[in-house]
Amino acid sequence: MNRIKQLFQTKKDILSIYYTAGYPNLGDTIQIAEALEKSGADMLEIGFPYSDPVADGPVIQASSKQSLDQGMTLKLLFEQLKDLRKNVTIPVLLMGYVNPVLQFGVENFCKACAEVGVDGCIVPDLPMVEYEEFYQTCFEEHNLSNVFLITPQTAEERIHKIDSLTNGFIYLLSSSATTGKNLEVGDTTESYFGRIKAMNLKNPTMIGFGISDKQTFDKACAYANGAIIGTAFVKAIADGNLEESVNGFMKNFKK
């Protein structure tokens, strides 16, 4: 069974951490993954950088630029990940935009993910209709979960369609803003989260965008199976000793 499915069957209040591959230094990708698992992360999302992001806020944009400037590519990332499963046992997803995947080749991408032990992908700008028509079979043949995103404006019909195509979890954006905005759970947001929860979707949900500390993490977990932290973690590792930075950040979430 896919590691993502196993995780959601055995744990609540799942903490997933996003970070940019090749940041802050080009060779840090695996070290960060290992440190995150040791310090209590339940799932990892490794971002492969792209020069023209559409959903990333300034912090993740800057980390992507630095990574690209240092020479990060999808080819290099897969080379770095070849030893991923020596010490990392938790689910790992790759997150990025569709252009680099198309340039790499979707079949090559899925095959490479399977070879290094990646469990799923989040490609926000991959149209659902194209995934279903052209790529779903390839993803499934390589046991990869493809994660779709839902926003407060997503129509109910589309949400049900996403639920039918999903074999991992559904990513609930807390707002339609870019990454890095603080989570504000007002009446509108509560209504949105509550509406999704009341739909009784067959797949678990994770809330992302604006989750930065234990307080916002706990708020999100009241409405979903867990939450995703990106910007706050990328900030935390920007300088200083990596292991110390990771441990210091993760201590905030220890029960």
UniProtKB/TrEMBL annotation:
The keyword Signal does not apply. It is an enzyme of class 4 (lyase). CDD domains: Tryptophan_synthase_alpha. The keyword Transmembrane does not apply. Pfam families: Trp_syntA. GO terms for molecular function: tryptophan synthase activity. Belongs to the TrpA family. HAMAP family: Trp_synth_alpha. This is Tryptophan synthase alpha chain. It comes from Pedobacter jamesrossensis. The gene is trpA.
